Amino acid sequence: MNVPLLGLAVVFGLALPVAAQAQMLQPGLWELTSSNMKVDNQDLPDLQLILGQIQSQMTPEQRAQLEKQGITMGGKGIRSCLTPEQVKTDNIPLTDPQSGCKQEITERTGNQWKFRFSCPKAQGAGVATFLSDREFTTKVNGTFNATGIQQKGSLDTRAVWLGQDCGTVKPRA
Questions:
Q1: Which DSSP category does 172 fall into?
Q2: Tens digit of pLDDT for each residue in 124-134?
Q3: How far apart are CA 34 and CA 157, in angstroms?
Q4: Which value, to the nearest 10 degrees, does the dihedral of the CA atoms of residues 81, 77, 152, 57 take?
Q5: What digits encode the pLDDT tens for the residues 52-64?
Q6: How far apart are CA 72 and CA 92, in angstroms?
Q7: Residue 88 φ/ψ region, left for φ over 0, alpha for ψ in the -120 to 50 degree band, beta for the rest
Q8: Taking the complete model, does pTM exceed 0.85, yes or no?
Q9: Residues in a beta bridge with 124
Q10: Residue 171 carries which DSSP code?
Q11: Any idea of the CA torsion for 53, 39, 78, 89, to the nearest 10 degrees?
Q12: CA quadruple 50, 51, 53, 54: dihedral positive or negative?
């Protein structure tokens, strides 16, 4: 698998900073899918194709490590479990708490929230649009350095609530 593709998917997809208040999102199982991914203005394959490649190359140990961090690849994207306590805060922990990423909401206007984020190997800004308490979208632009080379990236993400039962997907600590 091409390292820049994996880098963008991991940095912008798995480390997606999103914030919401209790009335904004339902607790339970969420599935995040990404589209319109670009690196240095070049289109990348659909997230489903990238995830398929990643899954086919992952060892059982790597899969277990991701699941331990609260990340499960399934369906059309990445699945994450949010507890009632997590959706009551201003910070929905869709990122790994140990990732070193920080986020800040810069503007809240109705159902749109603008934010900026910084991670050890990425930084940027975006906007989250809450369509309902069971669906939201984000548009993110930023720079990342997954391979020692600074690159620009962007993507759109759609998150859909799948239900209250998270099944085998564990919430992040």
A1: P
A2: 999 999 899 99
A3: 4
A4: 110
A5: 666 666 677 876 7
A6: 17
A7: alpha
A8: no
A9: 117, 142
A10: P
A11: 160
A12: positive
